[in-house]
Design a protein that fits this description.
Blueprint: E1 7-11, H1 14-25, E2 28-33, E3 37-42, E4 45-51, E5 75-79, H2 83-92, E6 96-104, E7 108-114, E8 120-126, H3 132-145, H4 152-168, H5 172-189, H6 228-244, H7 250-268, H8 276-287, H9 290-303, H10 310-323, H11 330-340, H12 343-352, H13 356-364, H14 368-380, H15 384-395, H16 401-413, H17 417-430, H18 434-446, H19 450-463, H20 467-476, H21 480-489, H22 508-516, H23 521-537, H24 541-560, H25 564-577, H26 582-590
Parallel strand pairs: 1-4, 5-8
Antiparallel strand pairs: 2-3, 3-4, 6-7, 7-8
Helix pairs in contact: 3-4, 3-5, 4-5, 4-6, 5-6, 5-7, 6-7, 6-8, 7-8, 9-10, 10-11, 11-12, 12-13, 12-14, 14-15, 15-16, 16-17, 17-18, 18-19, 20-21, 21-22, 22-23, 23-24, 24-26
Length: 593
C-alpha cells in the first residue's frame, strides 16, 4: 500500500478497532501508547487510532456521534498492490463488505468495507493496460536471438520509447511498470552481472527457449550487449525525471520509488556492481518527499540488521544518512554511522560537534590506510596537533612507509626541516633507496647537517652490507673511483651481478661501466668484457645478441683511447675461443663485428 498522508480515526471501541484492522485489512500495530493511541501499518500505509477518552480528542468529544454512526459519510481510499489478497482477507474476517470487488471505468479495481463505526474503507488497485508477461517475453526474446547487428539496446530502445509515449499521455504508472519489466528482465537475461542466473519463466515454458545461463568460466565476450550499462543508467535517470514531475500521482510515485530501490538493492549486493546503486540512490535522494524518504529509511534501517558484508552495510548507511540529512538528530546520525561502519562520517560529525576526544579514540582503532585519510578531517577542523599525535602514536607500533610519508609531508608543509629530516631518515632505514638518500641530502644541506648525516648513512649501509646502494650513491655523487672500488671489493647480490639481468638494464656492474666510460675507459672495458664472457657462457641466441651490443661499446672505448690494434687482438681471440658457436658468429656479424 502507499499513502501521502496520515489518517487518525477516533473510534468508539479501541481494542475492537485494532483487531478489525488487523484481521480485515492485514494491518499490524507498530506503535502504541497504552489505551490512548495506536499506529498500525501495512506496506507504506499508516492508520492512527484513538479512543473517545483519549486526551487528544477531549475538545471534540461533545461533537462525536454515537458508536456505529460517527464514520457515516467518510470514505478512506487505500491504494494497494494486490486488491484480490485484501478482498479475500476481508471475506475471511466476515467483515461488512458494502460493495463487492469489481472493475470500474476510472481504471480501478476495488471494493468497499465498513468499519464498525461507519467509516467506509475502499481498498483499490490501478488496472494496468500494460501486459507484464508479454513485455517480459518480448525483452527475453531480444536477448535469446543474440543478434549482432543490431545490438540488443536498439531493440530495447523501442520498448523504452513505449514508456516515454505513455509519459507524454501522463500515464506515469504504466510507464513505470514498463521500466520495471525492462530493467528486471535485463538483469535476469544479460551478462551485466557475473552471478546472473537467467530469467524466471513460467513452468510450462520450453527449456529450449531459455537464454543461456552465465558461466563464470566462460571468457566469451558479448558484443551484442555493448552499451547496456549506459542504457540502464538512462532508464534510471528517466525514472528520476518522472519523480521530479509534479504531474506524477502518488501511486505512480510509489511504483517508481520501488523500482529504483530494487535497482539499488540488486546492484549494491552484487559481487561486481555496475554503479547502478549510486545512480538510483541519487534519484531517490533528490526527488522523494520527506514522507517517502521516511519509508525508505525504515527499509534501510531493517537492512542494517542483516549479516551483509561490511561494504554493503556502509552503502546502506550512506544512503540512510543522505535521505535523512534534514531530519536526523545528531545522536541518531552517530548511531547509524556506528551501525554501518561509517568511520569517516562518524568522526566528521563528532568533530563538528566538538567531541574531539571521542573522535580521536575512534581514529586510534582504525587501520593505517583509513587513519591517514581521517587525519585530513582533523586538519580540516583545525586540530592539526591531534592528527600529528595520532600518526606519531602509530609510528611507535610500526614504521610503515605511508605513515612516514604522511609525516614527511606534514612537516614539509609547515616548514619544520628538522622534523622532516628525522622522518626521511626513518624512511631511509625502513626502505633504503637512492630517492630517500637524495631527499636526505637536500634537506641536510639546507640546515647545514649534511656532513653528519652523510657519515651516518654510509655507516648504516656498510653495517647492513648494502653495497649496491653504496655504489648508486657514489655514482649519484659523481665519485666514479669509489663506485669502481666498491664493485671490485664489496659483496654484490647475484641478482644485480647476473648476466641475464643485463637484458633488463638492472646489472649494477653495467651501470658502473656506463658511468666510467668517459673518465675511466679501461675500467669500463674490463667490466664489459667480463659481462660478455658470462653472456656467451649462457649459450643462447638472446645472450649472444646482448653480448654483441656490449662488444660494440668495447670497440668504441678502444677507439676512444686509440688502441685499435688491441681491439683487433681482443676480438680475434674471442672468435677463436668460441669458433664452434655458430649462432654467436651470426649475431656478431649482424652487429658489424
Amino acid at each position: 500500500m502507499s499513502s501521502t498522508c496520515w489518517v487518525e480515526l477516533c473510534v468508539s471501541d479501541f481494542a475492537q478497532s485494532i483487531v478489525w484492522f488487523e484481521q480485515t485489512l492485514g494491518f499490524r500495530v507498530v506503535a502504541r501508547d497504552a489505551d490512548d493511541y495506536a499506529e498500525l501499518s501495512r506496506g507504506k500505509t499508516t492508520i492512527q487510532l484513538a479512543p473517545d477518552k483519549a486526551p487528544y480528542w477531549r475538545s471534540e468529544r461533545p461533537h462525536l456521534l454515537p458508536a456505529g454512526q460517527r464514520g457515516s459519510g467518510v470514505e478512506i481510499v487505500l491504494l494497494v498492490e494486490d486488491v484480490e489478497d485484501v478482498y479475500q482477507q476481508a471475506q475471511q474476517a466476515k467483515a461488512d463488505i458494502v460493495r463487492e470487488l469489481a472493475d470500474y471505468p476510472w481504471q480501478m479495481r476495488q471494493f468497499w468495507v465498513r468499519h464498525p463505526d461507519g467509516y467506509l474503507i475502499r481498498p483499490a488497485q490501478r488496472i494496468l493496460s500494460v501486459n507484464p508477461a508479454a513485455y517480459k517475453r518480448q525483452i527475453a526474446d531480444t536477448f535469446r536471438q543474440k543478434q549482432t547487428p543490431p545490438p540488443i539496446i536498439d531493440e530495447l530502445a523501442n520498448i523504452k520509447e513505449v514508456a516515454e509515449a505513455l509519459v507524454r499521455q501522463r500515464d506515469f504508472l504504466e510507464a513505470a511498470t514498463i521500466y520495471e519489466i525492462l530493467i528486471t528482465t535485463i538483469f535476469e537475461k544479460s551478462h551485466l552481472y557475473s552471478d546472473a542466473e537467467g530469467d524466471e519463466y513460467d513452468e510450462d515454458e520450453d527449456e529450449d527457449d531459455r537464454y543461456d545461463e552465465y558461466d563464470e568460466d566462460d571468457e566469451e565476450d558479448h558484443p551484442e550487449e555493448d552499451g547496456l550499462d549506459e542504457f540502464v543508467k538512462q532508464c534510471i535517470e528517466s525514472l528520476g525525471r518522472y519523480l521530479a514531475d509534479t504531474r506524477t500521482d502518488g501511486f505512480a510515485r510509489q511504483k517508481i520509488i520501488t523500482v529504483l530501490f530494487d535497482i539499488y538493492i540488486r546492484d549494491v549486493y552484487a559481487y561486481d556492481n555496475r554503479g547502478f546503486a549510486a545512480s538510483a540512490s541519487e534519484q531517490l535522494v533528490r526527488y522523494t518527499t520527506s514522507l517517502e524518504r521516511d519509508g525508505l529509511m525504515k527499509r534501510l534501517r531493517n537492512l542494517l540488521t542483516d549479516d551483509s558484508e561490511d561494504n554493503v552495510q556502509q552503502e546502506h548507511g550512506k544512503l540512510l544518512l543522505k535521505l535523512g540529512q534534514e531530519a536526523l538528530d545528531d545522536e541518531t546520525y552517530l548511531r547509524i554511522c556506528r551501525e554501518a561502519g561509517l568511520t569517516s562520517e562518524l568522526i566528521d560529525r563528532l568533530l563538528k560537534l566538538g567531541r574531539i576526544d571521542e573522535a580521536e579514540n575512534i581514529a586510534q582503532r582504525t587501520a593505517d590506510q583509513e587513519l591517514l585519510k581521517l587525519t585530513d578531517l582533523f586538519i580540516q577542523y583545525k586540530h592539526d596537533t591531534v592528527a600529528e599525535r595520532l600518526v606519531r602514536a602509530r609510528l611507535q607500533v610500526e614504521s610503515a612507509l605511508p605513515i612516514l610519508e604522511w609525516l614527511r609531508h606534514y612537516y614539509q608543509t609547515r616548514g619544520d626541516r628538522i622534523a622532516e629530516l628525522d622522518i626521511v631518515g626513518l624512511s631511509f632505514r625502513a626502505q633504503p633507496s637512492l630517492v630517500h638518500y637524495q631527499q636526505l641530502r637536500r634537506l641536510a644541506k639546507q640546515i647545514d647537517l649534511w656532513a653528519t648525516t652523510h657519515a651516518q648513512i654510509l655507516a648504516f649501509l656498510e653495517q647492513t652490507h648494502n653495497t649496491e646502494l653504496l655504489i648508486q650513491i657514489a655514482l649519484d655523487d659523481g665519485e666514479i673511483d669509489t663506485a669502481l672500488k666498491l664493485l671490485k671489493t664489496g659483496p654484490i647480490s647475484e641478482h644485480y651481478n647476473s648476466a641475464s639481468s643485463a637484458y633488463y638494464g638492472k646489472a649494477i656492474d653495467l651501470t658502473v661501466a656506463r658511468a666510467a666510460e668517459e673518465m675511466r675507459p679501461r675500467e669500463a672495458m674490463q667490466i664489459y668484457q667480463q659481462h660478455v664472457e658470462r653472456l656467451i657462457a649462457e649459450r643462447n641466441r638472446k645472450s649472444y645478441q646482448i653480448a654483441s651490443t656490449h662488444l660494440t661499446r668495447i670497440r668504441s672505448l678502444y677507439g676512444q683511447i686509440g688502441e685499435y690494434e688491441a681491439w683487433t687482438q681482443y676480438i680475434t681471440m674471442l672468435r677463436e675461443q668460441n669458433h664452434t658457436l655458430r649462432a654467436l658468429k651470426e649475431e656478431m656479424t649482424k652487429a658489424g663485428l
